[in-house]
Amino acid sequence: MAGYIFRRALTLVPLVLFATFVAFVLMRLSPVDPAEAYFSAAHIKPNEQMLQEKRGELGLDDPFMSQYVQSAVRMLQLDLGTSYLSSKSVWGEIWQRLPATLQLTGSSMLIAFVAVVTLGYLSAVHAGRWVDYAVRILSYIGASLPQFMLGYLLIYLFALHWDLLPVEGKGTWQHLILPSLTLSLALVATYARLFRESILEQMKQAYVDYAHTRGLKPRSIMLRHVVRLAILPIITGFGMNLGRLITGTIVVERVFSWPGLGRFFVESIFNRDLPVIQGYVFFAACLYLCTSLLTDLLHMTADPRLSLQERSR
Predict the structure, then answer these.
(1) SS3 169
(2) DSSP states of 126-165
(3) Which of 91, 138, 211, 272 could lock 34 by a disulfide, CB 3.0 to 4.6 Å apart?
(4) Which residues of the chain have pLDDT under 50?
């Protein structure tokens, strides 16, 4: 296990560097001058001398590869630099907004996991009946609706029409309901059907027939054996989506004015705040790879056969 973790950790550095390099190239292809964006955000009309001085101060006059190498060396030392606009540490800006995003992500994952397990189990147990068809219809609707449309629909129904929940912002637990539902529905639509198919596939396996011949109760077979193995793809899927949700709640945070990382990242792109953009990509890549490793470890814990295969390799 330790060797597996070490080998996976070694892949972290080149993958993160590749992700940040792609982001660095895309930022440099943009026609917007970061120095002009800096003065524009400060509501200052600069002249050419001011622009040149600011470019030199920000290191934008250096050759392309020199800029990237300097940036990559700082990132490997966990130094993400200073924001052009706020003149604050990028790490400080990220940590300031991370709790709000974690709160939104955690509630969304909890709602989605409970709904996926419940709906997928009911759909599999009652396959071919009205419960199964209802879950399928819900999955199709959830997969078809874009998140921004679903968010505005929930705002109209629960905030404007029925006046039950607040529209936007962050404060009480009520502010968390609508954005969490918006984020979780896409996961429910995808993984409820996957969990259903996984259960039905496990029920066809020989060990289920053997368990019946041993006289085990059907409910015990389903919960202790079938569900335990059928849930493995769900664990993998949720683990792969955890990093994406933490760093990719951009649309939902914009719709509900949620003060998290996604909204902060969009504002940084508009303002061409290069250190923030680069630091965000670095943080997102590290987070995604770490959650992927954690998912694999949970997978091995749930299915000991994977651990034995790893030891044999």
Answers:
(1) coil
(2) TTTSHHHHHHHHHHHHHHHS-HHHHHHHHIIIIIIIS--S
(3) 272
(4) 308, 311
> Which single residue is written with the structure tokens 């390099």?
21
pLDDT of residue 152: 92
Residue with tokens 């719709």: 255
Looking at residue 82, what DSSP letter applies?
B
Does the reported pTM lie above 0.70?
yes
Cβ count near 27 (within 10 Å): 16
State how far Cα 299 lies from the chain centre.
Answer: 19
140: left (phi over 0), alpha (psi -120 to 50) or beta: alpha
Cα dihedral 250→253→256→257 (10° resolution): -120
Roughly what angle, to the nearest 10 degrees, separates helices 261-270 and 90-125? 130
Q: What is the pLDDT of residues 175-229, one digit of tens each?
A: 999 999 999 988 898 899 999 999 999 999 898 988 888 888 888 888 888 998 8
Q: What is the dihedral of CA 40, 45, 48, 52, to 10 degrees?
A: -40
* Extents of the domains making up the chain: 98-270
DSSP characters for 13-60? HHHHHHHHHHHHHHHHHSSS-HHHHHHHHTT----HHHHHHHHHHHTT
Q: Between 261-270 and 274-302, two packed helices, what is the crossing angle to 10 degrees? A: 150
Element (H, E) at 234: helix 232-247
Separation of alpha carbons 47 and 208, rounded Å: 77
- Fold classification of 98-270 (topology level): MetI-like fold (1.10.3720)
CA distance 261 to 249: 8
Task: Return the pLDDT at 10.
Answer: 76
